[in-house]
Design goal:
It is found in: Membrane. The protein is built from 34 helices and 5 strands. It is an all-alpha fold. The radius of gyration is 31 Å and the shape is elongated.
């Protein structure tokens, strides 16, 4: 018996038959692409069409093959098809609804593809016609809303979300997508919230729902009142906010798990064995191969939730028993949801035990810990553009958290202690920290560790100035809270001081190269003022009097770096160049640091001479410091505990426009190739009752 082959809507018997036979649905598409009304000869045409399995490839290809003029000739039939698709969404038979949803996807994408090359027609007019646009789009949005909120098929809900994502991302710049005006007017916000608040719906559709919401929030956000922004900012329903947090935590956890798996696979490989033999000469190069695709879409969703909704801040610190984080999960039953866009989903709402802290005594985690781990991975390598954007967005999210009073309260809470295993970049001059030695500390310690890690590991030729500025600002904001609330944090402050001094040293060593691209004095001033903050207010927030003594010891021990910095800024502030003003600000900011150095150095030298000691120990220097505080005179500096609050619209608009554009392209690409296969859907609706 001859085998039948199928390609591009053609059926061909592989033996004798010469003329290919077309599928019935393809013949029906061909009728739509004529200037005649297809229902003239066949009154049941539209009814029959939606019983046929959609051929997406053929329908989109047919639309793309036409030029603008040809498309305008069949506009009435395109309008008719669009309207009948919307009517079919109200049908009882799910097969018709599935086929209508898929046809709408093909139509929207196909017509938008044409618009890229020919702007001789309006998209809305081409799809629905101006005269019927408002009513048609209202009916479409209401039908999608009904399907999303109904208790029916999960596959139908999934396809509704795919259609909405298709609708939102057909243009690279979503703010130029005029169809979204109808999505603004006919809101599906409540339907998205319902998905997030229901455990079953969330497990199946949570990822797509969260990405859709993040994109809708960014539609013309600076130009007009976006109802999704307004509504998201006032959500106070706990199950809904927790549901959103669970979806984000799940996606970030999956990234962390994939990275950890690749890292372990990498370390156990042959290259690792060679590296161990020769020493750590090649370790940085080896690490570059560990790469997992970053997930900017889910990070954007986290940002919008943190930035817009004060109530969401509480979600960051909540443990998730539903995800198996309060206790080790006992044989979770995996499900297989439709693959979301741009990432591989976790198997269910239960996060694998790999996400648990490694120490057996600690079985709790939360969204903030998962986010900090994610940040520690993506911020390692900022040479790649996607990772640079991800790293910047991580720091923006942390900036919003560091400014929030409630977030600071739980960050600094002594009763909320965690072991947070951050990823550390392999470096030649340090050993890998043993995970089991991590102490249990308030969460702010992990944030500070992340900042210190970034400062230490990114002093390079392609200097990420913007990220360094954000990093120092986050530290400053945390210190302002500690000073204001007199929180005495038991932290290894020496590591921070050492990192900051080494940063100043790097800026001075690379003055010529860096000044060609950056105003390094802005960063230098911020670093110097962090030291001024410790000097002026350290007695109110450093954990012990000896911590304050150690601060002075570090300044005295590393005095050469501060002396060199003073010489550099003095030189540039006395010249009439472009750096005169910013350099002079650093000169003035160094006054107390120089006073400390000039006051204690002669005392230390005198102590050494009297006691005939060539090199003093740390304890001996500290003894000199403690006994000579009384005669030290410092100037009171104003504004050290003040900062400018984060503002997206004025400073970050360009970054977010570019980021959303990149996410839109990525979502569309993944939607096109991964998620519109009909086989799974039709299996569910194999019989029509």
């Amino acid at each position: 018996m001859a085998q039948t082959e199928k390609k591009g809507g053609l059926l061909r018997k592989s033996s004798a038959s010469k003329k290919p036979l077309k599928e019935k649905v393809v013949l029906m598409y061909d009728e739509i692409f004529t200037t005649e009304d297809p229902s003239k000869c066949n009154p049941r045409f539209w009814e029959e069409l939606f019983l046929m399995k959609v051929n997406l490839e053929y329908l989109e290809g047919k639309l793309e093959a036409l030029d603008g003029e040809e498309l305008m000739k069949i506009k009435d039939n395109i309008n008719c098809l669009f309207q009948h698709c919307i009517q079919a969404l109200g049908e009882e038979h799910p097969i018709r609804v599935v086929n209508a949803l898929q046809t709408l996807c093909a139509l929207i994408r196909g017509v938008h593809q044409k618009n890229k090359s020919t702007s001789g027609f309006d998209i809305i007019n081409m799809l629905v016609g101006f005269d019927k646009a408002e009513l048609c789009m209202k009916n479409l949005m209401e039908s999608l809303d009904t399907l999303l909120c109904a208790e029916g098929s999960e596959s139908l809900k999934s396809l509704c979300l795919k259609l909405l994502l298709c609708l939102v991302t057909v243009t690279d710049n979503i703010s130029q997508n005029t169809i979204l005006e109808y999505v603004m007017i006919n809101s599906i916000f409540e339907a998205i919230l319902q998905i997030l608040s229901s455990p079953l719906s969330r497990r199946e559709h949570g990822y797509d729902a969260v990405v859709l919401l993040a994109l809708l929030v960014n539609y013309r956000k600076y130009e007009s009142v976006n109802p999704y922004i307004v509504k998201l900012s006032i959500v106070d329903d706990e199950p809904t906010l927790n549901g959103m947090g669970l979806v984000i935590a799940q996606a970030l956890s999956e990234y962390n798990r994939q990275y950890k798996d690749k890292e372990e696979e990498h370390q156990s490989g042959f290259f690792s064995a060679i590296t161990n033999m020769v020493g750590s000469m090649f370790i940085a190069d080896a690490d570059e191969k560990i790469s997992v695709q970053t997930n900017e879409a889910i990070l954007l969703a986290l940002y919008e939730a943190v930035h817009l909704n004060r109530n969401f801040i509480t979600v960051l610190a909540q443990s998730h028993p539903e995800m198996g984080l309060m206790t080790a999960p006992s044989s979770p039953v995996p499900t297989t949801p439709v693959t979301p866009l741009g990432t591989t989903p976790p198997s269910s709402d239960v996060i694998s035990s790999a996400e648990l802290p490694l120490d057996a005594d600690v079985q709790t985690s939360n969204l903030l810990i998962t986010f900090l781990k994610y940040s520690s991975i993506v911020m390692q390598d900022t040479k790649d553009e996607h990772r640079l954007h991800s790293g910047k967005l991580c720091l923006i999210i942390l900036t919003c958290i560091a400014e929030d009073q409630y977030a600071n309260a739980f960050l600094h809470d002594d009763n909320m202690n965690f072991r947070v295993n951050l990823h550390r970049m392999p470096m030649r001059h340090r050993k890998k920290a043993a995970d089991k030695n991590l102490p249990c500390r308030p969460l702010v310690c992990a944030v500070l560790d992340l900042m210190v890690e970034f400062i230490v590991t990114h002093m390079m030729k392609e200097f990420p100035m913007d990220l360094y500025v954000r990093c120092i600002q986050i530290v400053h904001k945390l210190l302002c809270y500690q000073k204001k609330c007199r929180v005495r944090l038991h932290y290894t402050w020496r590591e921070l001081w050492s990192a900051l001094i080494n940063l100043l040293k790097f800026l001075m060593s690379n003055e010529t190269v860096l000044l060609a691209k950056h105003n390094i004095f802005t960063l230098a001033l911020m670093v110097v003022n962090l030291f001024n903050m410790f000097i002026t207010y350290g007695d109110t927030f450093l954990p012990t009097p000896s911590s304050y003594d150690e601060l002075y010891y570090e300044i005295i021990r590393m005095h050469q770096n501060f002396d060199n910095l003073y010489s550099m800024v003095l030189r540039l502030s006395t010249n009439a160049g472009q750096w005169k003003e910013p350099a002079s600000k650093v000169t003035h900011a160094l006054v107390n640091i120089r006073a400390i150095i000039n006051h204690f150095n002669p005392k230390i030298e005198s102590y050494a001479a009297v006691n005939h000691i060539s090199q003093l120990s740390e304890d001996q220097v500290l003894e000199v410091v403690r006994s000579n505080y009384d005669t030290l005179t410092l100037k009171l500096q104003d504004g050290l505990d003040q900062y400018e609050r984060y503002s997206e619209q004025h400073k970050e608009a360009a970054f977010f426009k570019e980021l959303v554009r990149s996410i839109s392209i990525n979502v569309r690409k993944n939607l096109a190739f991964n998620t519109l296969s009909q086989e799974l859907l039709l299996k569910e609706f194999s019989t029509i009752s």
